[in-house]
């Protein structure tokens, strides 16, 4: 089981903005004398965004489950974030890119249909 994923960004707030649109709630952390960074716990997995200059990660795709894909899609479009791959009939998923070019695979989690509009995220 993966316990955390750390990504690096030239501007951590700019990168965090797209993840916030998907329901991520970040807190600022600093471990010892290390750099301040953002962290979001989603279940058993933590997503961290650290500052860094070497941010190229062409082989990375981050998967995110959302309660309501239509809501997430509308938030992306309203924020001017283009859809790299839009939803297709029978496929409840989209793919967007974060500011550093990483792919984010966003799919609707149909396992918990209790509240489809809360925007909560699961990583």
Q: Tell me the strand percentage band.
A: 35-45%
Question: Total number of helical segments?
Answer: 2
Instruction: Classify the secondary structure makeup into a structural class.
Output: alpha+beta
Average of per-residue pLDDT values: 86
Supply Rg: 14 Å
Unreliable segments of 5+ consecutive residues = 113-118
**Secondary structure: number of strands:** 9
Q: What is the topology, as strand order, of the major beta sheet?
A: 6-7-8-5-9
The CATH level-2 architecture is identified as: Roll
Describe the global form: globular
Instruction: Tell me roughly what share of residues is in helical segments.
Output: 10-25%
Return the domain count.
1
CATH domain topology: 2,3-Dihydroxybiphenyl 1,2-Dioxygenase, domain 1
Sequence of secondary-structure elements: EHEEEEHEEEE
CATH superfamily: 2,3-Dihydroxybiphenyl 1,2-Dioxygenase, domain 1
CATH first level: which class?
Alpha Beta
Report on the biggest sheet: 5 strands, mixed
Give the termini distance in whole angstroms: 12 Å
């Amino acid at each position: 089981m993966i316990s955390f994923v750390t990504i690096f960004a030239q501007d951590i707030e700019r990168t965090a903005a797209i993840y916030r649109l998907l329901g991520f709630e970040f807190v600022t952390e600093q471990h010892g004398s290390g750099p301040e960074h953002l962290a979001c716990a989603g279940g058993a997995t933590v997503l961290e965004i650290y500052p860094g200059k070497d941010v190229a990660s062409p082989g990375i795709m981050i998967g995110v489950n959302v309660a309501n894909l239509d809501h997430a899609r509308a938030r992306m479009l309203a924020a001017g974030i283009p859809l790299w791959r839009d939803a297709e009939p029978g496929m409840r998923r989209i793919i967007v890119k974060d500011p550093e070019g990483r792919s984010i695979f966003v799919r609707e989690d149909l396992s918990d249909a209790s509240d489809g509009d809360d925007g909560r995220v699961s990583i």
